[in-house]
Amino acid sequence: MAERTGEGSPRMRAYAGYKKIYRYGSPVLRQKTEPVTVFDDELRAFLESMAETMYVSNGIGLAAPQVGVLRRIMVIDMSFGEEVDTILAMVNPEILGSEGECTLEEGCISIPGVFEEVVRPERIRVRYHDLNGETVETDADGLLARVMQHEIDHLEGVLFVDRIGAAKRALLAKTLREIAEESGEEL
Ligand SMILES: [Zn+2]
Fold first, then answer.
1. What residues are labeled active site?
2. CATH topology assigned to domain 27-182
3. From ligand 1's centre to the CA of 133, what distance in Å?
4. In angstroms, what is the span from residue 182 Cα to ligand 1's centroid?
5. How far does residue 59's CA lie from ligand 1's centre (Å)?
6. Which label site among 16, 72, 79, 134 has the fewest CB atoms less than 10 Å from its CB?
7. Where are the domains of the chain?
8. Band of residue 73 on the pLDDT scale cut at 50, 70, 90
9. Can you give the pTM of this predicted structure?
10. Ramachandran region of residue 8, left (φ > 0), alpha (ψ -120 to 50) or beta?
């Protein structure tokens, strides 16, 4: 998920592991992902490169399909990488339950410049594997719950613009078409 950055100071650090971001219109964003079964150095290196790509893109969450990998992997860091040890690597996440409802504005690294309010559950319970393959169960609310739901949607081929209602989406149709054309992908 992307946040409005206001000051517009993209973090152009020289990240070696930076990966290409697939944008709206790319077929890979619409496909389902496979669970991860092997927790090895390759997975850790991939997660590291995902985190770097997220930071460079001013994101607070990134899912593997956004870098063209159809695996159930996502990273979240609500501090934009400014604080140490705040990165959350989630492998094979699933939502066990949810309650409440809230409206929050969302954006997406794969849909640059588009920010829309989306209604989703306010609190969720999730289960996932950490980097070492250990099972973790946790509750989340507020913005963290929001980012988790946005990223888990990516693992199912769902984008936040699918959840904004037909009228709003119709207003966005031209912008979305332009993003798809710019990224050289057919809709
Ligand atoms: Zn997204």
1. 151
2. Peptide Deformylase (3.90.45)
3. 24
4. 18
5. 9
6. 16
7. 27-182
8. very high
9. 0.90
10. left
